[in-house]
Amino acid sequence: MIQTWTLNHQLTWLPQTESRPGELTDEGDQWMERRPTGNARVVCTCGYSTDLVDRSALPSNDDLREHHNPRI
Ligand SMILES: [Zn+2]
Prior knowledge:
The chain is mostly beta strands. It has one helix at 61-65; strands at residues 11-24, 30-44, 53-54.
């Protein structure tokens, strides 16, 4: 008997960052400085996506894991 295919879910957390050129070093090198803005988005391979929001406004980890459950 052939089994049906089940859609897989793979969540990825995408933190937003910003960058700027740093000060020149004594050797004349210049590095980029990068920092998180505090905003993030979570996406899933099924098409689910949160908005880009402050990290504290993201759904809980339990809710994210159950995003494909109709109760959410
Ligand atoms: Zn999913």
